[in-house]
Amino acid sequence: MKKLFTVVFVFAFLGIYAQDIAITEDDFLRGSVTPERSWWDLTFYHLDVTVDPENKAISGSNLIQFKALKNGSILQIDLQPPLKIEKIIAQNEELAYKKIGTNAYHVLFNEEIQRGQTQQIKVYYSGKPKEAVRAPWDGGFSWKKDQNGKPFIATSCQGLGASVWWPCKDHMYDEVDSMAISVSVPKNLMDVSNGKLRKVEENDTSKTYHWFVDNPINNYGVNVNIGDYAQWSETYKGEAGDLTLDYFVLKDNLNKAKEQFKQTPKMLEAFEYWFGPYPFYKDGFKLVEVPYLGMEHQSSVTYGNKFQNGYLGRDLSGTGWGLKFDFIIIHEAGHEWFANNITYKDAADMWIHEGFTAYSENLYLDYHFGTKAAEDYVIGTRANIRNDKPIIGRYNLNMEGSGDMYYKGANIIHTIRQMVNDDDKWREILRGLNKDFYHQTVTTQQIENYIIKKSGLDLKAFFDQYLRTIKIPVLEYQYDGKKLKYRFTNTDTDFSIPVKVYIDTNPIWIKPTSNWNVLKQKGKAFSIDRNFYLESKSITD
Ligand SMILES: [Zn+2]
C-alpha cells in the first residue's frame, strides 16, 4: 500500500516524540520470533467466519495446522481485543490457554508435540472487531454502505496485523503453504476473498463463500470484501499460460470500471516483462472494489481509486506522467511480485515491498511510454523524499522505517540500474529476484547480497549509506575547461560508486572516493547524469 501521506500526517503530530516511542512487551510479542513461535512451522489455515453487518460482529474459527520443527508444548497465537477466544480444540479435546500481554495467547498442549509431527488446533472466536476509521492506514473492518444503502464491507490490516480480525500466528516470517477461507454473509451479498472460489453454499438465511488459496500467503494479504457486486472475467495469455482475471465492482460502477480496468492486462504485460511471470497463476488475479483506497491483498487486489488515473486524481511525480496510469491498479498489483511473492520477514525491511513497488510505477511507464517518461517520473518523485530517518526500521518490534522507503527506495533502485548500465542484465536481476526468492520470506541482507552478486558491483557501502543513514552523498567538483576535479563528501570513507557524468554532451564514467581525483578532459560544461540520486556542489578555489 501507499503510505506516504499518512506518514507525513502522523509525523506532523508526533514530531520528535516519534524517536522515543516506548517499547512494550506487546511490541516484542508481536514483532519477534518468540520461543513459542519458533518451534513450529505453519502449513495450513482454514479460516471460517460469519460476518454480521447489522451488529458489526463476526464469529467463527480458524484451524491452524503446523509441523513441529522441534519438540514443544506451548504455542503462541495472536488475537487482538475486543475479539475473544471461546475455546481451542485439538483432537477433540479442549486445550488450556492463557493470555500474554494484550494481544497474544499461549496455547498449552497436554503432551509435548514431537519434532516432525504435524498437528492442528482449531481456535473458536467471536466479537466486534476493531473498526477501521481511516482504512487502510489504521486497519480493521470497514462497515460502509453503497449508494443503494446495501452493506459494503472490507478488511485491511497491514502493519496492525491480521490478528485484528482473526486468530493466527501474526508474524511475517512464517507463511502457510495454502489456505481455505469460508465466509458466511447475508443472502443478498457476496464475499470476495483470496484465491479461487470453490463453491457457494446456500444456508437458511445466509450464503457461505468457500475460497481456496493454492499458494503461500502472508497474514495481512488475507481479506474479506462483502458487497452487492457485479462481476466480469477475462483470460490473460501470460508467460506461464492462461491467467484468469476476475473483476468485482459495485453494480452502479460497472461501466466506468470496465473502461478503467483495461489497465489490468497492460499492467501484467509490463510487470511480467520486467519481473517475470505473475507469481500466483493457480489463484488467478482479481481486482475488487472496496470502500477505501486500496491494498495489495494477494490475488485479490483491492481498489478504491474512484476509477480515475493518478493517486486519487493526483500525480505524485509532478511531471504529468503520474496521470497516465491508475496508481492503485499499478502500485497495488506491483506488490504481487514485491510483498506477496517476495515478502519481508521483519517489518524493519519493509522497503523490500514499498521501494521495489514504488519503483515498479516507473517500470510500467518505461514499458508503455518509454525510458524518458519513466526517468521523469521517478526523478519527479524525489520531491516526496524527506530524509527524516533511515529507511530500515527497528528489528523484532514490528516497527517499519521512514516513509522514504517508497520514493527514496525507488530512486536507490533506479540509481543501481544506472550503475549496472545494461538493461538486459538489470532485467535479469529483477526477474532473478522473483525466481530465486519465489514464494519466500526474506531479509534485506539477502536482497542486497543478491544484487551485489548478480551485478558484480560492490554496493555494500552504498546500501549501508542509503538504507541505514539519512546522509545523501555530495559529489563535489571543479571544472576549468581542461581538467575535472571531483570527490565525494557526506559519505563514510569507504563509499565509492561509479557515476555517469558529461563534459558537454560526452558521457564519461568516474568513480569518486572521499579523496580528490583529477581527470583531464577539454570542454565547456560539466554535468552529472540526472538519474543518479546524489547531491552535487561546484567548488571554486
Ligand atoms: Zn505499497
Q: How would you characterize the overall build of this protein?
A:
This protein is of the alpha+beta class. The strands form 7 sheets. The chain has an 8-stranded mixed β-sheet. Strands 16-17-18-20-19 form a 5-stranded mixed β-sheet, with helices on one face. Strands 9-10-15-12 form a 4-stranded antiparallel β-sheet, with no helix packed on it. Helix 7 (351-369) packs across helix 9 and helix 10 (423-436) packs antiparallel against helix 11 (444-455). Residues 2-19 have low confidence and may be disordered. Bound molecules: zinc ion. Residues 1-2, 331, 335, 354, 357 line the site of zinc ion.
Quick recap:
With 541 residues, this protein is an alpha+beta fold. It contains 12 helices and 29 strands.
Helix-and-strand structural type: alpha+beta
The N- and C-terminal alpha carbons lie at a distance of: 48 Å
Percentage of residues in strands? 25-35%
Total of helices: 12
Trace the largest sheet across and list its strands.
5-4-8-2-1-11-14-13
Which ligands does the model contain, each kind named once?
A: zinc ion
State the helical fraction: 10-25%
> What coarse outline follows from CA principal-axis ratios?
globular
Low-confidence stretches: 2-19
Strand and helix map with partners:
Elements: H1 4-14, H2 25-31, H3 35-38, E1 40-52, E2 57-68, E3 72-78, E4 84-90, E5 93-94, E6 96-100, E7 104-113, E8 118-127, E9 140-145, E10 151-156, E11 178-186, E12 190-192, E13 196-202, E14 206-213, E15 225-227, E16 229-238, E17 241-250, H4 254-260, H5 263-275, E18 285-289, E19 294-295, E20 300-303, H6 327-334, E21 342-344, H7 351-369, H8 371-380, H9 407-420, H10 423-436, E22 440-442, H11 444-455, H12 460-468, E23 474-479, E24 483-489, E25 499-503, E26 506-510, E27 517-520, E28 526-528, E29 535-538
Parallel strand pairs: 1-11, 17-18, 18-20, 21-22, 23-29
Antiparallel strand pairs: 1-2, 2-8, 3-7, 4-5, 4-8, 6-7, 9-10, 10-15, 11-14, 12-15, 13-14, 16-17, 19-20, 23-24, 24-27, 25-26, 25-28
Helix pairs in contact: 5-6, 5-7, 6-7, 7-8, 7-9, 10-11
The structure holds zinc ion (ZN).
